[in-house]
Amino acid sequence: MLHIAICDDEQSFVDHLKSLIRQYAAETGEEIKVSPYYDGLDLIEKYDPTVDLIFLDIQMKLVDGLRTAEKIRQMDEKVGIIFLTTLTQYGLEGYKYRAADYIIKPIRYVRLRDELNRFLSMSRQDASPSLIIKNDSGKYKIFLKSLRYIETFNRNLLFHTEQEKIICYKSMKEVEQELKGQGFARSHSSYLVNLFYIKGVQKLEITLVTGEILPISQPKRKQFMEELTEYWGDMI
């Protein structure tokens, strides 16, 4: 299912765009969920990381589209963003937030159809597994290829990604089950490691390609090394 968010402070435009999306779904057979938001702050505070694509108006009264995109990118690095504007001058500025494109209003069905066809084609070619977590700051979509390791932290979990560190309130056992078969292995009761990032192992220490050193507990070493050997064997 494709999940689309529309963020625009004009009710009439939101309704118009929803009707065009329904037309596209009827013609193509795509299952599409649409979530409307009427200002940037609303989208930021209620952001749902299951969203695949955002139609985002640049000119809004409370929080404009560019500031909204900046905040969304901090929570979700991969979600598609298509800016909506009545002024062409905003287009190039929007690209620094890795916008998929921008559309000059009013939007016509032919343009919407082409954009959705292109977005679906690209997203299916680049389907990356991800994990959704939430904490007091909000919800986050974490792509597994950017997740180096997870460690216990003050009775919670700390996700170490390429971009930042994110607190998660799930248990290690729960997350380990969710990541089963995804190239992660438990090296220690407090560490779950992405095997892709491992550079080498010496005795009870793991060296990551980043230079970070993580521990291996003696009870878990045998199982961990078996999983690492199998993973490296598959990679060769």
UniProtKB/TrEMBL annotation:
The record, for Pfam families, names: LytTR, Response_reg
**Occurrences of domain HTH LytTR-type (ranges):** 131-230
Alphabetized UniProt keyword annotations: DNA-binding, Phosphoprotein
> What residues does the Response regulatory domain cover?
3-120
Alphabetized GO MF terms: DNA binding; phosphorelay response regulator activity
Where are the 4-aspartylphosphate modifications? 57
Q: What does this protein do?
A: May play the central regulatory role in sporulation. It may be an element of the effector pathway responsible for the activation of sporulation genes in response to nutritional stress. Spo0A may act in concert with spo0H (a sigma factor) to control the expression of some genes that are critical to the sporulation process.
Please give the name of this protein: Stage 0 sporulation protein A homolog
Originating organism: Schaedlerella arabinosiphila
